[in-house]
């Protein structure tokens, strides 16, 4: 599993819990939701994204087996969060991790 690809984004917001809950409720219809000590993980086939509240922000940690699957997870989670947070001008900027 160490060869999985990963990327992360930290999205500053005054209400990270609200956005985390909204993403889980909405995307949980299409993805499996797995509670974890750090937050909630959304599992999409070969990829997943851990959503966690951290110091006035929502942290997104995406992992996948292939570049295409990672990009799909980033696109789905990022697009939905930006849409939900349009009024708060949320922007998701993914950063690849080694």
Topology:
Layout: E1 5-12, H1 16-27, E2 32-36, E3 39-44, E4 47-54, E5 57-64, H2 67-84, E6 95-97
Antiparallel strand pairs: 1-5, 1-6, 2-3, 3-4, 4-5
Helix pairs in contact: 1-2
Can you put this structure into words, describing what you see?
The protein is built from two helices and six strands; from the N terminus they run βαββββαβ. The protein is of the alpha+beta class. It has a single domain (5-93), classed as Alpha-D-phosphohexomutase, C-terminal domain (TATA-Binding Protein, 2-Layer Sandwich). β4 and β5 (57-64) form a beta hairpin. α1 packs across α2. The mean pLDDT is 94.
Cα radius of gyration in angstroms: 12 Å
How many DSSP E strands? 6
- The N- to C-terminal Cα distance equals 13 Å
Count every helix, treating DSSP H or I runs of 4 or more residues as helices.
2
CATH class: Alpha Beta
Strand order in space, largest sheet: 2-3-4-5-1-6
**Proportion of residues in extended strands:** 35-45%
H-E order: EHEEEEHE
Mean pLDDT: 94
Helix content: 25-40%
CATH superfamily, by name, is Alpha-D-phosphohexomutase, C-terminal domain
CATH topology: TATA-Binding Protein
User: What is the SS-derived class?
Assistant: alpha+beta
Number of domains: 1
What is the CATH architecture descriptor?
A: 2-Layer Sandwich
Major sheet attributes: 6 strands, antiparallel
Q: Identify the overall geometry.
A: globular
Report the uncertain regions: none
């Amino acid at each position: 599993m160490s060869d999985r690809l990963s990327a992360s984004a930290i999205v500053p917001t005054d209400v990270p819990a609200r956005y985390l809950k909204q993403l889980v409720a909405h995307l949980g219809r299409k993805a499996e939701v797995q509670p974890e000590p750090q937050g909630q993980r959304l599992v999409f086939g070969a990829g997943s994204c851990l959503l966690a509240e951290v110091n006035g922000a929502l942290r997104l940690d995406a992992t996948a087996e292939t570049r295409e699957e990672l990009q799909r997870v980033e696109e789905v989670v990022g697009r939905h969060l930006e849409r939900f947070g349009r009024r708060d001008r949320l922007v998701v900027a993914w950063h690849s991790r080694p």
